[in-house]
Inverse folding.
């Protein structure tokens, strides 16, 4: 029983950060139709930057349990690279074939990889176990880190926020309308340039925030961005391209699957996930909530 | 003999009904025009007939074989081809290369990995013949993207003809063309069909003069339903009945040219 | 037209250029340093891989981020056959590599070619990374991240193990690879000039119209995928003995990215573009890597520049220069 709880819990924890990145991916694809390979890199940047901020926070003598505040702040702050990347690079390829868009985001991945290497080097880094400050709790015999629970809660709050924005604000309506039909936005006289910047920044922030939140619980390694994009794609396929609901449910499924696989057959972790991906592609290619033809 | 028939086709986009129980039969040797105001469902009908869209209910038959939703590729092999309202081309191909694609496909040479296309006399010859039928042979080495709009349209149609289909569906073949050229184009199409051996032509068309000059039968579509399915002469006779059913405003839209012709 | 443009556009000129370049490649070890000859040797292998990739990218319009997967299959085949099974005949290695990669490409292709281009790129990426994690985790079979050694193969049945390493690589093996390379260039040329090649280009330019002309887009993409996979495997199998070592990094997605980069750099709308890209990349990377360890950033920036400003690559720039002059008079 306790193993099941353990597995489920770590699965949901995986899912929370995966959801954030996948949501960022989905919203940018939905509006700009660009599949941003660099979302994993933003995640990695968030993680590295998160470590820096937490370490300085602690070194500055501030109250340790409050570390999560600057951590979230770090994730949000790093979102500033969103508009820079969008205006500096992405905007040039909106009208081009997907191939070029993918290649450009791949170039960004390469550049960010070396930026990370330049600033932080290649050895794995951690926050030194600061998450343990929140202690653990006992659920059905399993010991679970409270920090992870905090992260899960944060993701749920963010998911609810996203849902609210999409359904009840003008910005959200614009996102949903353009996701449906790209020309609609322009036809309605909306300044699409601003929308694109905002959406891309939103996508970026979700990624950096995800990375920042996850970092106290794990070590950051230079490949984490790449591994993440592979997982994020699995979420997108299972959940459906362009769908927020899909990002949520898909992330849950992939997160729990990953957890189960690590526990049972760690060598086959990726393979298990991708067998499901292939199965989904064969049975329902649009994914659970996807609408458009793939 | 019925060569293409549709039986109770219905197609919904969410709650919007594009096709609401459409049934008809096209016989060998007929030239049928489908008319109707914009939004009547004409393009949806063509998409369903050519297997690009699957109807929610209803079936499409080619001769006695059901072809509902089989997809354009299989359909072309069976003998049904189509051209597009908005020009659908290979921009970087020359006119000749464009036609060669259709010929290669028809001759089954698509999986020929090893022989040189340039030296394949059969393919070159057949492509050139089609180009001649459509008066594009003098432009055979011009890149499609550099052609004038009217020629692009012709090329799109010509490539469909190059498949030697038995039935061809033309989606507004003369749209975007100046009125003086329309007749010439239609004559080219009709004579090309005869030379190639196309048995039936179905076209979606707005220009009533063309419709009445060339069609054996006219199917009028309105809000997803067939309003009337008869010969040009019969439509002229029944115009009053039709207008009563539909209302004067709609009627005017559909039969405006007809009315102009009469007065 | 200026005289040099006139000459450049003649078919016979192109043939002459090809022959001259071919002879240069052939005779390179005679006048270049051993190091440069070694780099050219790797170029032959990469050129083959990149020709295969371009069949997918330039001719069929499909971007694969998993091309290195097939290259790694070829490389590991060479390692397994020479190292674990003591089968040293290069020809056998090449044939086995082609068979295995074609089978895998057929299977993987069945999944990948049915969906939109983004999914194709991501699925191929995923398969490449799946193989990476397989190579790492099943270390008792594959040597894990330390990889496996590749022993010197017999060329055309001759046991050349007595010859010193660099002499072998820049002499006998260089010639062998050159001829395989030349042969495969010729074969690929035949393929893209065939009716099949025309259909691929049609699929690239307008898949919907191609379907309407009776071409099964999925099936042809599948064929192109298999051929490209076989090419990559041959390239990998040739590269392995040159490096002497195979490791999982060969299938990491950024290695696939490198192959795509080479293709784009040279120009993927052109048959010889990727070859130009390959040779420029190899020598450029060598130069840049010796200057800084942050070569990925530089190449990423170059890639971004190419995509935004010069998507036609080097070949594209050259051909637009020739055309511009032609239109200018």
């Amino acid at each position: 029983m306790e193993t099941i709880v353990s597995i489920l819990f770590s699965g949901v924890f995986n899912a929370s950060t995966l959801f954030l990145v996948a949501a960022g991916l989905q919203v940018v694809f939905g509006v700009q139709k660009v599949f941003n390979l660099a979302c994993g890199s933003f995640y990695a940047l968030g993680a590295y930057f998160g470590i820096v901020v937490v370490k300085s926070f602690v070194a500055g003598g501030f109250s340790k349990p409050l570390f999560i505040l600057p951590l979230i702040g770090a994730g949000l702050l790093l979102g500033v690279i969103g508009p820079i990347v969008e205006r500096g690079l992405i905007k040039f390829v909106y009208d081009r074939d997907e191939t070029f868009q993918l290649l450009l985001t791949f170039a960004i991945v390469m550049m960010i990889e070396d930026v990370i290497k330049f600033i932080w080097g290649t050895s794995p880094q951690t926050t030194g176990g600061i998450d343990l400050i929140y202690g653990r709790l006992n659920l059905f015999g399993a010991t679970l880190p409270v920090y992870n629970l905090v992260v899960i809660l944060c993701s749920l709050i963010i998911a609810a926020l996203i849902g609210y924005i999409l359904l009840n604000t003008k910005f959200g309506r614009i996102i949903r309308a353009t996701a449906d039909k790209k020309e609609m936005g322009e036809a309605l006289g909306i300044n699409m340039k601003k929308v694109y910047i905002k959406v891309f920044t939103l996508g970026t922030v979700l990624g950096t925030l995800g990375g920042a939140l996850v970092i106290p619980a794990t070590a950051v390694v230079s490949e984490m961005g790449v591994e993440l994009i592979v997982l994020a794609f699995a979420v997108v396929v299972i959940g459906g391209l362009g769908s927020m609901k899909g990002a949520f449910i898909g992330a849950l499924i992939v997160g729990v699957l990953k957890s189960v696989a690590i526990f049972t057959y760690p060598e086959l972790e990726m393979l298990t996930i991708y067998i499901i991906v292939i199965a989904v592609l064969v049975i329902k290619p649009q994914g659970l909530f996807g609408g458009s033809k793939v | 003999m019925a060569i293409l028939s549709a039986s109770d086709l219905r197609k919904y986009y969410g709650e919007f009904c594009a096709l609401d129980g459409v049934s008809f039969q096209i016989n060998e040797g007929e030239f049928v025009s489908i008319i109707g105001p914009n939004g009547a469902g004409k393009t949806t009908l063509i998409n369903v007939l050519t297997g690009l869209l699957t109807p929610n209910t209803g079936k499409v038959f080619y001769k006695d074989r059901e072809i509902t939703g089989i997809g354009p590729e299989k359909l072309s092999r069976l003998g049904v081809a189509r051209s597009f309202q908005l020009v659908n081309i290979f921009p970087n191909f020359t006119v000749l290369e464009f036609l060669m694609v259709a010929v290669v496909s028809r001759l089954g040479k698509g999986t020929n990995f090893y022989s040189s296309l340039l030296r394949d006399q059969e393919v070159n010859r057949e492509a050139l013949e089609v180009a001649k039928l459509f008066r594009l042979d003098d432009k055979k080495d011009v890149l499609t993207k550099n052609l004038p709009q009217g020629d692009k349209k012709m090329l799109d149609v010509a490539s469909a003809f190059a498949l030697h289909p038995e039935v061809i569906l033309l989606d507004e073949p003369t749209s975007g063309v100046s009125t003086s050229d329309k007749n010439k184009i239609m004559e080219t199409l009709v004579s090309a069909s005869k030379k190639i051996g196309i048995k039936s032509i179905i076209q979606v068309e707005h220009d009533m003069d063309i419709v009445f000059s060339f069609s054996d039968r006219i199917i009028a579509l309105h809000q997803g339903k067939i309003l009337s399915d008869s010969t040009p002469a019969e439509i002229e006779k029944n115009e009053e009945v039709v207008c009563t059913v539909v209302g004067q405003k709609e009627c005017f839209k559909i039969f405006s040219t007809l009315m102009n012709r009469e007065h | 037209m200026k005289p040099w443009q006139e000459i450049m556009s003649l078919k016979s000129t192109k043939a002459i250029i090809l022959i001259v370049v071919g002879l240069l490649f052939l005779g390179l070890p005679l006048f270049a340093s051993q190091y440069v000859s070694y780099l050219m040797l790797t170029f032959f292998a990469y050129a083959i891989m990149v020709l295969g990739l371009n069949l997918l990218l330039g001719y069929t319009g499909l971007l694969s981020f998993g091309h290195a997967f097939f290259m790694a299959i070829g490389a590991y085949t060479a390692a397994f056959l020479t190292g674990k099974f003591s089968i040293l005949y290069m020809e056998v290695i090449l044939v086995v590599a082609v068979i295995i990669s074609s089978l895998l490409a057929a299977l993987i292709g069945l999944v990948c070619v049915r969906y939109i281009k983004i999914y194709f790129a991501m699925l191929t990426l995923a398969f490449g990374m799946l193989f990476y994690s397989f190579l790492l985790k099943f270390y008792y079979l594959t040597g894990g991240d330390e990889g496996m050694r590749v022993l010197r193969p017999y060329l055309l049945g001759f046991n050349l193990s007595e010859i010193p390493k660099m002499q072998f690589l820049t002499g006998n093996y260089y010639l062998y690879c050159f001829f395989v390379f030349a042969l495969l260039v010729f074969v690929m040329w035949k393929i893209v000039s065939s009716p099949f090649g025309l259909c691929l280009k049609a699929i690239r330019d307008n898949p919907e119209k191609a379907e309407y002309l009776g071409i099964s887009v999925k099936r042809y993409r599948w064929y192109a995928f298999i051929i490209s996979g076989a090419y990559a495997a041959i390239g990998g199998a040739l590269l392995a003995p040159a490096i002497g070592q195979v490791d999982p990094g060969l299938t990491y997605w950024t290695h696939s990215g490198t192959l795509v980069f080479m293709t784009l750099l040279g120009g993927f709308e052109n048959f010889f573009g990727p070859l130009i890209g390959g040779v420029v990349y190899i020598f450029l990377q060598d130069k840049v890597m010796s200057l800084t360890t942050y070569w990925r950033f530089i190449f990423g920036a170059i890639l971004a520049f190419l995509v935004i400003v010069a998507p036609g690559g080097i070949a594209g720039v050259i051909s637009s220069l020739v055309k511009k002059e032609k239109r200018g008079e």
Summary: The first strand of chain A starts at residue 136 and ends at 139. The longest helix of chain A spans residues 2-32. Chain A has one domain: 15-225.
